[in-house]
Amino acid sequence: MGDEAEATTGGKYVEPGSEFTRDQRYIATRITTDGRDGWPVEPGRYRLAVSRACPWANRLIIVRRLLGLEAAISMAVAGPTHDARSWTFDLDPGGRDPVLGIERLADAYFARFPGYERGITVPAIVDVPTGQVVTNDYARMSLDLSTEWTAYHRSGAPELYPERLRDEIDEVNAVVFADVNNGVYRCGFAGSQQAYEMAYHRLFDRLDWLAERLAGQRYLVGDTITEADVRLFTTLVRFDPVYHGHFKCNRQKLAEMPVLWAYARDLFQTPGFGDTVDFDHIKRHYYEVHRDINPTGIVPLGPDLANWLTPHGREQLGGRPFGNGTPPPPPTERVTPTPLP
């Protein structure tokens, strides 16, 4: 997670007097059907390293689950907090990932790139036989799960990146990333009033644009869920618990934006979305790790999460979440249960 994992000194995320700029120099190696980068698609060979706190990792968790790739690609889950050195596997017995045998994700990065100096980020895919990180290019990773791993998709898996819609999905993803996914961080990590205000207006202008787009259609592109919905959802689901207060994105709560709130609840209640979300990990990560923003490390108790399960009424707009496919089966991997009403 470019923002969270790249702090180089004790929790420093804000550079006074400047705007936040994300380091987007990722390991661009791809895992492909033809193995042209040296890493062929092979079930059981790779392990997806994630934190449930991270929105970028949450995308991969959702896509992997929707496509039914759990048996083909195993998953290592880091704890919700980390220090300046790396994400740690402190949720596992002995604080060590049982498959990779490492305590810190950094070990997989250093196994391939000794002295690696950029961010030790999640999500990342690790080659189990060698223990080496293959890629942390999160945007490409999820697309490749849709396009390169088709031989191992479950029966009934949705088309998240259909060829006929790719240009439109790419266009929507580009503006959503710049103004919303990354926009909340540009607010939260702004080092000046001017940088914050510019990011704030850019964020809410784009949210207004999205609300107008979604007022008459159930999903962002086409009439089924796509990669575009996955990418927007992971920011929206963190909006009220974290971004509204912690990152000062406080013109309105998501729950006060009727169209986006209904859209987000629709996705949350769709199998494969809400059942991947761990609000406890999300809140602990942001409020405990970003000590230059929240020096006390106190984690707020609110907001009430039961309203995520209330009726959303989006079915009236038509559309079918999985197209001609089917929902994924109930999850087998642990997630903190969302409180019921």
From TrEMBL:
One of its GO terms (molecular function) is oxidoreductase activity. PANTHER family: GLUTATHIONE S-TRANSFERASE OMEGA-LIKE 1-RELATED, GLUTATHIONYL-HYDROQUINONE REDUCTASE. It is an enzyme of class 1 (oxidoreductase). Its EC number is 1.8.5.-. Residues 326-341 have a biased composition (Pro residues). It comes from Micromonospora rubida. The keyword Cell membrane does not apply. This is Glutathione S-transferase family protein. Pfam families: GST_C_2, GST_N_2. Residues 136-289 form the GST C-terminal domain. Keywords: Oxidoreductase. Residues 312-341 are annotated as: Disordered.
